[in-house]
Amino acid sequence: REAQTCIANQASRKSLNAFISLAGGASILRKAEAADTQRDRGPLHGRLIAIKDNICTSELPTTSASGILKTFTSPYDATVVKKIQKAGGIVSGKTNLDEFGMGSHSKCSYFGAVTQNDASRGEALSAGGSSGGSAVAVATGQCWAALGTDTGGSVRLPAAYTGIIGFKPSYGLVSRWGVLAYANSLDTVGVLAQSTQHAEAVFEAINGYDEQDPTSLTPTTRTRISNLLSQRRRNSSLRIGVPLEYNIAELSPEVRCAWIRALELLRNQGHTILPVSIPTTKRALSAYYVLAPAEASSNLAKYDGVRYGTRAEGPDGAEGVLFSKTRGQGFGDEVKRRVLLGAYTLSAEAIDNYFIQAQKVRRLVQQDFDRVFSLANPLLDVRRTGRQNTDERVDVLVCPTAPTLPPTLESLEKQSPVEAYVSDIFTVPASLAGLPAVSVPFKESQGQEGNIGIQVIAQYGDDNLTLDVARIIE
Ligand code: GLN
């Protein structure tokens, strides 16, 4: 029944361009029926799960919304896809995104932009990016939940813009094996869902050590973290931090108002609200846009028409012609911009001034967070210095996910790339520090136009706490 509704919605909402490929109604229904006859039912039994198209599936193509991979089908399933299926979930299709995950509005796609309808304004609104296809698929009932990837906010931002839950787990908890790398030191697989409960169910299914991913958190470290968490004395009343630097001039009044209302709601439930300082917030954005393109330029080198990618027509003559022609035709403008930027910041001439500096800022961002959380970072030596007084430390941070409401697609035409990067200002810091963060839809007032997301960030490994707080706000 549920599967049928999703399939009907997929047909009636085709114009939103949420999917690049669909599993097909007949195949889904066959799997749903087969699932019904099974005796041991998994936690995602019969649920339709959409998969972002930069995650490998053997049954459907994996294009990463790039011209260079337009004909690629992976010979294997990513670990997360296997885990979804093992839990009883059915892969319903592959969702549209910004090419290789580079973007904040899901408009830089070889297959065209994703949109979300705005009934009141009658204009096409940004779905957020880069997991915009996954977000729209969930928000419009085309699937039960979806997987996205979050490198600098790509799960949280589209969740905020489309009014759903978007959860990015701590870096290393969920396997990246079979996930096309954008910036691998930042890439995480996240979940988009209608409710925190659904997001949690999917997270539980995909969370776990994978020996095929060298950055996967080992069982020993996982045990150490859960011991640390169980030793913590959890008060029913939480200490909620408000990062003062997030109150930027670019914050739209509606979003600021929603932030205040969300904090009031938490205070009325008996939690304590405390101002905290994350001084590196603005520099974090600049550092991200040096580090992510640098890693991207290296990760995307393999798409050359020989190892991977649709090869350009013509003779394979003088050295480099085949590569440059293939890459020139296959990549979109934003990807080319990032590859060039990354190649430059990694060059001998620029590395000290850009890449190395950005790495240092990244470390400062991590230290900023460690200073404000009462839980010590389980990945670091707890005896280090510089921690704030216990009375000043907090359990979670609560702030907006994005500085504005979803913009219209038309208004984005006039935006420069740098202006577009500002929409990531609140999501990038948690990515640089590898922290868990969730975006929760929040209604500031009854007549509110457009969706607003409130973000909850916690210390590394404290993923369940972010979801607990999300549940209060939702
Ligand atoms: N908008 C950011 C970028 O373009 C984040 C993308 C992501 O998280 N994949 O890099």
Topology:
Blueprint lengths: L1 H11 L6 E4 L2 H13 L10 E5 L26 H8 L3 E6 L20 E2 L6 E2 L6 H8 L5 E6 L5 H7 L2 E4 L19 E6 L2 H11 L12 H13 L7 E5 L9 H16 L3 E5 L4 H19 L21 H10 L2 H13 L9 H18 L23 E5 L8 H5 L3 H5 L6 H6 L3 E5 L11 E6 L4 H11 L1
Parallel strand pairs: 2-3, 2-6, 9-10, 9-11
Antiparallel strand pairs: 1-3, 4-5, 6-8, 7-8, 7-12, 11-13, 12-13
The site of glutamine has 14 residues, from β6.
In total, the number of strands is 13
Mean pLDDT rating: 93
- The stretches of 5 or more residues where confidence is low (pLDDT under 50) are none
- How much of the polypeptide forms β-strand, as a percent range? 5-15%
Could you say which overall geometry the principal axes of the C-alpha atoms support? globular
User: How many helical elements?
Assistant: 16
Element-by-element helix/strand order: HEHEHEEEHEHEEHHEHEHHHHEHHHEEH
Helix content: 25-40%
CATH class: Alpha Beta
Biggest sheet: strands, sense, closure?
Answer: 11 strands, mixed
CA-CA gap between termini: 27 Å
Radius of gyration: 21 Å
Q: Could you give me the name of the CATH homologous superfamily?
A: Amidase signature (AS) domain
How many structural units, i.e. domains?
Answer: 1
- CATH architecture descriptor: Alpha-Beta Complex
The small-molecule ligands in this entry are: glutamine
Q: In terms of structural class, how would the helical and strand content be classed? A: alpha/beta
Subcellular location: Mitochondrion
Protein name: Glutamyl-tRNA(Gln) amidotransferase subunit A, mitochondrial
Subunit structure: Subunit of the heterotrimeric GatCAB amidotransferase (AdT) complex, composed of A, B and C subunits.
Catalytic activity: L-glutamyl-tRNA(Gln) + L-glutamine + ATP + H2O = L-glutaminyl-tRNA(Gln) + L-glutamate + ADP + phosphate + H(+)
